[in-house]
Amino acid sequence: MILYKEDCETQILCRLSEYGDMLRIPDAAYVLGVAKECVRRRIVKGLIKSVIINRTCYIAKDWIIEFLNNGHTVKERAWNFQTKRDKIVMYCQEPHSRQEIQEYFGYSTKEYMRKVLTGLISEGRLAYTEKPHHRNQKYIALRL
After folding, report:
1. Ranges of CATH 1.10.1660 domains, the chain
2. Is 15 helix (H, G, I), strand (E, B) or coil?
3. I need a labelling partner for 58 at 20 to 30 A (CA). Which of 28, 45, 48, 78 fits?
4. pLDDT below 50 — which residues of the chain?
5. What are residue 95's phi and psi, to 5 degrees?
6. Topology of the domain comprising 5-80
């Protein structure tokens, strides 16, 4: 499923309207469509403003809107509603090697990465650019 920037922003604003003026981290994670740890990291980096009251971290709606308007997560928000396999196919719109794909998505073992890539090839979503076991093998998307 592919969602465009406008669709993602509409979903986020609809979710945001369900809450009061202040949100806790789990609520902000739900609204943004990311994991709680992602919200925490963005707070630590200073990308999302927050305030701590009685050992609980709160984020104002205005701060979330400000964060979104700064364009920090447009790419992540658009990709968040897709599976990892969909993300790999989108990334492979231009040819990439297994190692490039593995490093970009943070997979630790090449055996697992090869399993994922051969699965996508058998589904007809990716294709080889060379013969299957060529040393300069790259993968390219056939369809989204």
Report:
1. 5-80
2. helix
3. 78
4. 1-4, 74-79, 81
5. -60, 135
6. Multidrug-efflux Transporter Regulator; Chain: A; Domain 2 (1.10.1660)
* 102-119: burial string, b at 16+ Cβ within 10 Å, e else: beeeebeeeeebeebbee
Owner of token pair 């297994």: 98
Architecture of the 84-141 domain: Orthogonal Bundle (1.10)
pLDDT, tens digit (0-9, with 9 covering 90-100), for 22-46: 999 988 888 887 788 888 988 998 8
- Please, how many CA atoms are within 13 Å of residue 86, restricted to the half-sphere of its CB? 11
Q: Roughly what angle, to the nearest 10 degrees, separates helices 61-69 and 25-32?
A: 40
Please answer whether residues 96 and 107 qualify as being in contact, where contact means their C-beta atoms are separated by less than 8 angstroms.
no
Rg (CA), the chain: 19
